[in-house]
């Protein structure tokens, strides 16, 4: 049984809505309240009205009805249209990191939801009940999956990419838009059954790793359970047995995981204990800290500590300390920088996860500290894809906010009907 199938995507009608950059938006879970307001103001057709509708003061659940009404209205007006031919959608993102150009290729398809007993889909992060409740209410109102989950698969022979270069890239894209972060999103529809079958064959019996969208994946499984109870006579191909998914090659050099830094509002205790476990080097400039941290991270467990009066590079003195002081988890889990930071520093300071602000932006860390809005910040190195894979295969979950896959798969490019 194939892990994926094509679907008839709902997407924007460019002739009706005009500038696509004004109507697409990031996934709901990375949008702040201020950004939500900004997207609302950009364009009356901005997808924020469907993916992250505003709260109604008198009735918190009314926002889901608003999203449903908006979706229906846009379909009726022709602002959104649905493709007639089942397709998979090649999705290329062109972006820069530190001035270096990258181009990540993937595709959107409907992924079959697994049975727990033989699942080959591996998450790597824990989820929160409140966020899942929100998405379940939205999907139930919409009868649609409005934003894809993000999954990595292995394609060392680049079979999926070869099909794209030979059969898809020469054709005109369905969409070509640059977002506000400067990332270009290009989408092509592929409806050829034979080529789709070749791609599906590549995915057969694969281990699939959820990079982003853990809440959406669990919501999809719960939505399926509810629908199966209501419609027991429906077959295995019922739409709710699948979830819209963005797939990309984990073996590609253009799959980038950004570090997630930690901002600490207050330091309740002295940091004198650091030298017991770390080599502590005083650093003069932010650029020097960044360079030395990346260099140290190639062979050591290291992170930067940024405070208003000083910058420090902390390098674990001896890897044997890990097994001596950390009993939780596998060897791979214990050797994550985030785990080491938690056990050797944050726990000793009495700082819990809910007391920490997380960000992918090191400048946000230093800015908050410089302005006196935080006492300190820990600058981290990136998690490697092989670390994520090894931990996920062992059935373990990483500490909160350990990875940030960049760029995100944006919302408003495609929707998938669940009914």
Percent range of helical residues: 25-40%
Oligomer: single chain
Report strand %.
15-25%
Task: Give the count of structural domains.
Answer: 2
Major sheet description: 9 strands, mixed
Mean pLDDT, all residues = 94
- Unreliable stretches covering 5 or more consecutive residues: none
Q: What's the number of extended β-strand segments?
A: 21
Distance between the termini: 21 Å
Q: Which term fits the overall shape? A: globular
Structural class: alpha+beta
Number of helices: 15
Give me the Rg, rounded.
23 Å
Task: Please describe the structure with a list of short key phrases separated by commas or semicolons.
alpha+beta; 34% helix; 2 domains; six-stranded antiparallel sheet; 419 residues; nine-stranded mixed sheet
Q: Can you characterise this structure?
A:
- With 419 residues, the chain is of the alpha+beta class.
- It folds into two domains: 264 residues, no CATH class; 119 residues, no CATH class.
- The protein is 34% helix and 25% strand.
- The strands form five sheets. Strands 1, 4, 5, 6, 8, 9, 10, 11 and 12 form a nine-stranded mixed sheet that branches.
- A hairpin with a 2-residue loop joins strand 4 and strand 5.
- The model has no long low-confidence stretch (mean pLDDT 94).
């Amino acid at each position: 049984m194939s892990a994926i199938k094509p679907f008839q995507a709902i997407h924007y009608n460019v002739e009706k809505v005009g500038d696509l950059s004004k109507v697409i938006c990031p996934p709901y879970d990375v949008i702040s309240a201020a950004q939500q307001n900004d997207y609302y103001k950009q364009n009356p057709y901005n997808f924020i009205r469907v993916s992250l509708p505003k709260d109604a003061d008198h009735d918190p659940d009314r926002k889901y009805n608003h999203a449903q009404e908006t979706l229906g209205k846009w379909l009726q007006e022709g602002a959104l249209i649905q493709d007639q031919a089942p397709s998979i959608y090649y999705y290329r993102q062109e972006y820069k990191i530190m001035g270096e150009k990258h181009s990540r290729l993937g595709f959107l398809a409907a992924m079959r939801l697994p049975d727990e007993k033989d699942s080959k889909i591996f998450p790597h992060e824990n989820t929160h009940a409140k966020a899942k409740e929100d998405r379940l209410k939205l999907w139930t109102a919409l009868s649609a999956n409005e934003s894809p989950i993000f999954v990595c698969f292995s394609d060392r022979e680049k079979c999926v990419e070869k099909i794209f270069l030979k059969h898809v890239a020469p054709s005109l894209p369905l969409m070509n838009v640059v977002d506000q972060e400067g990332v270009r999103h290009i989408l092509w529809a592929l409806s050829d059954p034979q080529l789709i079958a070749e791609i599906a064959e590549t995915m057969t019996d694969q281990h699939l790793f959820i990079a982003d969208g853990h809440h959406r994946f669990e919501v999809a499984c719960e939505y399926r359970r509810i629908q199966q109870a209501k419609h027991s006579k429906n077959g295995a191909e019922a739409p709710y047995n699948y979830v819209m998914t963005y797939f990309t090659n984990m073996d590609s050099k253009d799959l980038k995981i950004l570090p997630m830094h930690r901002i600490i509002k207050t330091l309740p205790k002295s940091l004198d204990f650091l030298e017991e476990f770390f080599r502590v080097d005083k650093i003069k400039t932010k650029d020097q800290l960044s360079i030395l941290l990346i260099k140290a991270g190639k062979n050591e467990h290291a992170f930067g500590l940024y405070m208003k009066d000083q910058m420090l590079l902390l390098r674990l003195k001896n890897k044997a300390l890990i097994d001596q002081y950390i009993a939780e988890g596998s060897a791979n889990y214990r050797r994550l920088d985030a785990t080491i930071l938690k056990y050797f520093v944050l726990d000793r300071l009495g700082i819990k996860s809910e007391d920490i602000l997380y960000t992918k932006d090191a400048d946000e860390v230093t800015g908050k500290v410089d302005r006196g809005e935080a006492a300190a910040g820990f600058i981290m190195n990136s998690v490697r894809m092989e670390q994520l894979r090894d931990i996920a295969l062992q059935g373990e979950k990483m500490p909160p906010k350990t990875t940030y896959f960049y760029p995100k798969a944006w919302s408003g490019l495609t929707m998938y009907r669940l009914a």
